[in-house]
Amino acid sequence: MENDRSQLVAEKQHAREQWSQDPCGAKYGAKYEFATREFFDEVERHRYEEYAPWMPLVMGFNDFKGKRLLEVGCGMGTDLLQFARGGAICTGFDLTPRSVEISSLHLGLYDMRADFVLGDGERLPFADDSFDVVYSNGVLHHTPNTEQAVRELHRVLRPGGIAKVMLYHRNSLYYWTEIILHRGILRGHFLRGHSPEEIMSRYVEYSEHEARPLVKVYSQKQARTLFKPFAEIETEVEQMIREELRVLRPLVSEKAFRRLRRSAGWNVIITARK
Ligand SMILES: C[S@@+](CC[C@H](N)C(=O)[O-])C[C@H]1O[C@@H](n2cnc3c(N)ncnc32)[C@H](O)[C@@H]1O
After folding, report:
1. What CATH code is carried by the domain that includes residue 157?
2. Average of pLDDT values for 11-34?
C-alpha cells in the first residue's frame, strides 16, 4: 500500500518534470524567443496547419459560445485559446505549475480571458455540475488512475454536458510499427526486458531531459468502457502524418491515406454526454 502510494507520487512527479522541462508543443516554436507572440503563433500554425488540421472541426473550437468550459491538462493553452476565441467561458487546469503560468501568459498575450487552477485531474477542485463542457487532449493517458480522472470529468459536468477527450490509440499504425516493431523488436527493447509501456515512456513524448512520463494506450472499445459512467458515448480516430508510411509513402493515394488515418491514427477522440 505504502509502495503503491509512493509509486503514484513518483508518476505524478515524472509528469511534472516532463512538462516543466519540455512544455508540450514548445519545440515547434523554438526558432523564436520562448513565450512571445511569434513563438505562440508558430506553435499554433504547426499544430493546426501541419500536424493536426482536423483538430478545429473535430474538437469543436467554435461550438461552445457562452458555455462554461474546463480544460484538464491545458499545457501551454494552445487549444484553450481557440475555445476562448470561439466565445467559451474558459477554465484552464493543470498539474504542472509551469503549464499554468505559460497558458495564463499565452491567453493574456492575445487579450483573451480565462481562469487558471493548479491541481490533479484525479481530484478536481470543482463542485458537481459546474461545467457545460470538459475537454482534455493528450492528458489522461499520462495519469495513473485514468478511470478516476474520467469519473471526475463526469462529476463536474452538468447533466447533458459534453466531455471531449483525446487518448492515444492502441490499434494504430504508430503503436504497432514504431513502438512494437521498430523499438520493441528491431531495436531490441523487448530482448532487454522492456515492456511496451516502458518503451512509450522513453520515446512517445519529446524530452531533452530523460524524463520518463507514464504513457498508456487505449483501443476504441477500451475507451468506451472507460467512459461508461456517461449516458452517450461516441469515438472516432484521427491523426497520422504521411512520414509514418515510410517506404510505402509514394504508393498510398490521398483517399487511402485518409481512410487509414481515420481507422489506424494515433488519437482516439471520445465525445460523451452526461
Ligand atoms: C501532453 S501535455 C498536453 C497539453 C495540452 N493538452 C496539449 O494538447 O498541448 C500533458 C499536460 O497534462 C498535464 N497533466 C498530466 N497529468 C495530469 C493530471 N493528473 N492532472 C492535470 N494535468 C495533468 C501535464 O502537466 C501537461 O501540461
Report:
1. 3.40.50.150
2. 85
